[in-house]
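cron nightly-structures :: item 1 of 1
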Amino acid sequence: MAYVFNVQSLGTEFYRLRSSLKAKQEHASLLEDFREFDRTRLDLEDGVGSPEQALLKEHASINRSTGQMDSVISQAQATLGALVFQRSTFGGINSKLSNVSSRLPSVNQILSSIKRKKSMDTIILALVASVCTFLIFIYWVTK
């Protein structure tokens, strides 16, 4: 039992440290991007030199923009990976709940009443949204 608790505490500590590391890396990346932006602004204030120099500056600017787009894409892919992981975690929780509900009939009744309440809430929310949309449409048409 102590082994399981120790593994769980180590796991939570790992996730906490990993998220802290990601936050610090993002902060450092943002600072580096700002420094590059500041250097570019200073270069533009110095004045325009030869046409070749202007083309080189434009090429460097395009390369920096491409690098920033790559970083945004990698962040989006990391977010997708985190969402997929959360989905699998919640899927595991759902299967465990259904397993418990099949073993204990009273839990099954409670879970079914929760599902009914959730579906009722969804229906009510949909009706409220549709009425609001209809009223906005009527207001828009009469205006």
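cron nightly-structures :: done
The mean pLDDT is 80.
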